[in-house]
């Protein structure tokens, strides 16, 4: 049996478990140059709900992340 649809009747797109691309750097600010997440988002990723993660995914993809060569 398939998973129930999310709110609004649409299921979020399939995504990797994490946006991490192993290019971790927050040298100049609080945003990782590889995945685009804030330090807080990286630290709390495993405890975030699917809906919270989706909000982050939408934002970072719109900003051109994840980036392997930065």
Automatic annotation (TrEMBL):
A Pfam match: DUF1289
Domain of life: Bacteria
InterPro entries named among the record's database cross-references: DUF1289
Name of this protein: DUF1289 domain-containing protein
Organism: Massilia rubra
